[in-house]
Automatic annotation (TrEMBL):
<dbReference type="InterPro" id="IPR028939">
    <property type="entry name" value="P5C_Rdtase_cat_N"/>
</dbReference>
<protein>
    <recommendedName>
        <fullName>Pyrroline-5-carboxylate reductase</fullName>
        <ecNumber>1.5.1.2</ecNumber>
    </recommendedName>
</protein>
<feature type="binding site">
    <location>
        <begin position="7"/>
        <end position="12"/>
    </location>
    <ligand>
        <name>NADP(+)</name>
    </ligand>
</feature>
<keyword id="KW-0560">Oxidoreductase</keyword>
<dbReference type="InterPro" id="IPR008927">
    <property type="entry name" value="6-PGluconate_DH-like_C_sf"/>
</dbReference>
<feature type="domain" description="Pyrroline-5-carboxylate reductase dimerisation">
    <location>
        <begin position="146"/>
        <end position="250"/>
    </location>
</feature>
<keyword id="KW-0521">NADP</keyword>
<keyword id="KW-0641">Proline biosynthesis</keyword>
<dbReference type="GO" id="GO:0004735">
    <property type="term" value="F:pyrroline-5-carboxylate reductase activity"/>
</dbReference>
<dbReference type="Pfam" id="PF03807">
    <property type="entry name" value="F420_oxidored"/>
</dbReference>
<comment type="similarity">
    <text>Belongs to the pyrroline-5-carboxylate reductase family.</text>
</comment>
<dbReference type="InterPro" id="IPR029036">
    <property type="entry name" value="P5CR_dimer"/>
</dbReference>
<dbReference type="InterPro" id="IPR036291">
    <property type="entry name" value="NAD(P)-bd_dom_sf"/>
</dbReference>
<dbReference type="Pfam" id="PF14748">
    <property type="entry name" value="P5CR_dimer"/>
</dbReference>
<feature type="binding site">
    <location>
        <begin position="64"/>
        <end position="67"/>
    </location>
    <ligand>
        <name>NADP(+)</name>
    </ligand>
</feature>
<feature type="domain" description="Pyrroline-5-carboxylate reductase catalytic N-terminal">
    <location>
        <begin position="5"/>
        <end position="91"/>
    </location>
</feature>
<dbReference type="GO" id="GO:0055129">
    <property type="term" value="P:L-proline biosynthetic process"/>
</dbReference>
Length: 257
């Protein structure tokens, strides 16, 4: 069992707590100043506390707080060189964290699917085998360069919201066609889930898979013709670019420090 401490039990932190608990490979201490946040994860960890000092006993410490309080939390942490600090604070450069701790530093951008152990994460910094195994426990990850973290933040960090948007659009289209909302949502969500798994498991590219699904004169190609003639891909690219730009703005504020 890896002794793990998660500091910050908001949406992302609590998702990590639940995912790590579900893996069965971690002894988790959850730390937050909000008693309601701690109560929400109490069933998924060994201990809840408002004392960041408890992180001193952990092998791996997750810093899952908002960017504007990262420095204040780091000032309270006293970690050693044999510990690993994993920062998931959006826009906070690895160097900023490294300058304020003796621990090995890994920066990751995860997403909320950590809760169901389907997380997509980007990682940079001192990524040890211990961290790799931990990330494997809650999903899939890619090791990237520090300079790629802003675009990774946009793709996999913000990406779930974009996917939720399209699932809702497909759901509403189903409802408009006469399906019950719950039925339509199950069909839409499971379709996204299955399609995503196919992309991960199949050797073909996404474009090749589109071609495989589109039978000549069939229903799918009729729908794809509409998408190909639309600006849906451009709109999605613009959404990713906007999220990337915001990540760059957050990072710039810390670099000025």
């Amino acid at each position: 069992m890896v002794r793990t401490c998660v500091i910050g039990c908001g949406n992302m932190g609590s998702a990590l707590v639940r995912g790590l608990y579900a893996s069965g490979n971690h002894s988790v201490v959850a730390c937050d100043l909000d008693p309601d946040a701690l109560a929400a994860v109490a069933d998924y960890c060994e201990e809840t506390t408002d004392d960041v000092g408890r992180a001193a006993d952990a092998e791996v410490v997750f810093l899952a707080v908002k960017p504007d309080i990262v420095e204040a939390v780091l000032d309270e942490l006293d970690l050693s060189a044999d510990q690993t600090l994993v920062s998931i604070a959006a826009g906070v450069p690895t160097a900023f964290v490294e300058a304020r701790t003796d621990a090995r530093v890994v920066r990751i951008m995860p997403n909320l699917a950590a809760e169901t152990r389907d997380m997509a994460a980007a990682a940079t910094g001192d990524v040890t085998d211990e961290v790799r195994e931990l990330l494997d426990d809650v999903g899939e990850f890619a090791e990237i360069e520090e300079g790629q973290m802003d675009i990774a933040t946009a793709v996999n960090g913000s990406g779930p919201a974009f996917v939720f948007y399209f699932i809702e659009a497909m759901t509403e289209a189903g409802v408009a066609g006469g399906l019950d909302h719950e039925e339509a949502q199950v069909l839409a969500a499971q379709t996204f889930k299955g399609a995503a798994e196919t992309v991960l498991q199949d050797d073909r590219t996404a474009d090749e898979l589109v071609d495989a699904v589109c039978s000549p004169n069939g229903t799918t190609i009729e729908g794809m013709e509409v998408l190909w003639d639309s600006e849906a891909d451009a709109a999605l690219a613009d959404a990713v670019a906007a999220a990337e730009q915001r990540s760059e703005e957050l990072a710039a504020a810390f670099e000025d420090d």
